[in-house]
Specification:
The complex is a heterodimer of chains A (about 110) and B (about 120).
Chain A: E1 4-5, E2 10-14, E3 19-21, E4 24-25, E5 31-38, E6 45-50, E7 56-58, E8 64-68, E9 73-78, E10 87-95, E11 103-104, E12 108-113
Parallel strand pairs in A: 2-12
Antiparallel strand pairs in A: 1-4, 3-9, 5-6, 5-10, 7-8, 8-9, 10-11, 10-12
Chain B: E1 5-7, E2 10-13, E3 19-24, E4 31-37, E5 44-50, E6 53-57, E7 65-68, E8 75-79, E9 88-95, E10 107-108, E11 112-116
Parallel strand pairs in B: 2-11
Antiparallel strand pairs in B: 1-3, 3-8, 4-5, 4-9, 5-6, 7-8, 9-10, 9-11
Classes of the chains: A mainly beta (about 110), B mainly beta (about 120).
């Protein structure tokens, strides 16, 4: 069964600091990988996704993630965070081919201090 | 606003009662998903429909849970004989199946928060 691990449950950063959130998955086959974000009081939104091709994926709002197959990792990065990035971030994985049975990690709460 | 609507937003019920939630997906979306999220956890897959067909169910979905999507549009999730462990946020999501999977995008609703007393 596929599983997703997010190592940091709560991260506190000052504005302009760099961000890296860890994500590891267990499934050894071909996977699709996602990062979702949930801003306070809002629904889950797709931040970025990896299906194939360039392992460095760029998403919205300056976020990017790198798929490293050998490490089963898909870490999220942003060079300089803003207060508006305060949210909960979920890494997710699905079997290749679509969204069926997407498995989510437990989430990382990011708090950015002005 | 993503366009996925869920009703009600909050539901408080007593243990043993039945509850039903509704999800209206984005109108042209043919895939609909139900997830459950508890405090401190990510969303857990429950089931999904393609049009009116329920194609997959998680083993998390016990016999007390049933989901329908009778006309391939809105969906309902019913929980019978609720238990305190059913307390969670129930999320609905929809997508439009694409020829190329890379183009498919999942849209989530705001969820129904269930509290079983």
């Amino acid at each position: 069964a596929q599983s997703v691990s997010q190592h940091n449950h709560h991260v506190i950063l000052s504005e302009a600091a760099s961000l890296e959130l860890g994500c590891n998955y267990s499934y050894g086959g071909t996977v699709n990988l996602f990062w979702y974000v949930q801003y306070p009081g809002q629904h889950l939104q797709l931040l970025l996704k990896y299906f194939s091709g360039d392992p460095l994926v760029k998403g919205i709002k300056g976020f990017e993630a790198e798929f490293i197959k050998s490490k089963f990792s898909f870490n999220l990065r942003k060079p300089s965070v803003q207060w508006s990035d305060t949210a909960e971030y979920f890494c997710a994985v699905a079997y290749s081919g679509g969204y069926q049975k997407v498995t989510f990690g437990t989430g990382t709460k990011l708090q950015v201090i002005p | 606003d993503t366009g996925v609507s869920q009703d009600p937003r909050h539901k408080i019920t007593k243990r043993g009662q039945n509850v039903t939630f509704r999800c209206d997906p984005i109108s042209e979306h043919n895939r609909l998903y139900w997830y459950r999220q508890t405090l401190g956890q990510g969303p857990e897959f429950l089931t999904y429909f393609q049009n009116e067909a329920q194609l997959e169910k998680s083993r998390l979905l016990s016999d007390r849970f049933s989901a329908e999507r009778p006309k391939g549009s809105f969906s309902t999730l019913e929980i019978q004989r609720t238990e305190q462990g059913d307390s969670a946020m129930y999320l609905c999501a929809s997508s439009l199946r694409q020829t190329w999977a890379t183009n498919e995008k999942l849209f989530f609703g705001s969820g129904t928060q269930l509290s079983v007393l």
